[in-house]
What does this fold into?
Amino acid sequence: MANTAHAHRIHPLEGRIAGSAGVRITPAAPAARVSLRAGPSDVKALSKALGLDLPLAPKTTSGALPGRLAAWLGPDEWLIIDEGGDPLADLGKAKVLHSAVDVSHRNTAILLSGAGARATLEAGCPQNLTDAVFPVGAASRTVLGKIEVVIIRTGDEDYRVECWRSFSTYAFELLSVGARDCLA
Amino acid sequence: MLLIHCPYCQEERPELEFRNMGEAHIERPKNIADISDEAFEAFFFIRSNPKGVTHERWRHVHGCARFFNAVRDTVSDRFVATYKSGEPRLEVERGEDGELLVKGARS
Ligand SMILES: [Zn+2]
It folds into this structure.
């Protein structure tokens, strides 16, 4: 009789929690993610397939989590995040030229919330994150310490940091250290 | 930190998001298999490396990931202007005050 092995997938930041008086740092729930590349003439059809308008302005998003969110990463590049549905399957219904790559298991995310969330991010991110240029709904690929991340501002005091799975412990530690000084 | 204007993101972003990609406006010969070794050397290896105004390719690698062109002064390290890939070479001139400006921008 054949033996059956059961693999149990463990979240890379399983069980972690960090923060300080001003900020709470937690791992985000699992989500499906798609790296989408397409030319301007095909955006309309892809938006229809996804059920949201792909953002066309730099540093903007459309949609919201939980549910589906699309972040502008470049003039022909988006990151789609979905906590319930299957964006890849939906994109498959669009019969226009595009590249959609499932990066669900490449990425994970860290959530920051609280009055010190922005200051915590600023400990490792050189980008200007002030309200005037990084309002709620803004998203940007940038750097955090020595890794590349995508930062999404989901609320007044809430940020989502998308990073590669293998870098997530580094990102989590860096943000934890940043949290200590966030209200100083 | 140096701030660089990305023509695709349409704003200034920290230099840590960018990478220099060498001299701009170097066109690959269309008959590359037919050219002489000397001509290939000139195309492939020889760069102008001027003191002063230089045209460079840059990449917003940790941002929108796009390549673009920049005019930079190698003496002051100032960026005069940046523009999208495919756009014509931007000509600049030095004013009486020594500052570099895009040609025609001064009025
Ligand atoms: Zn850019």
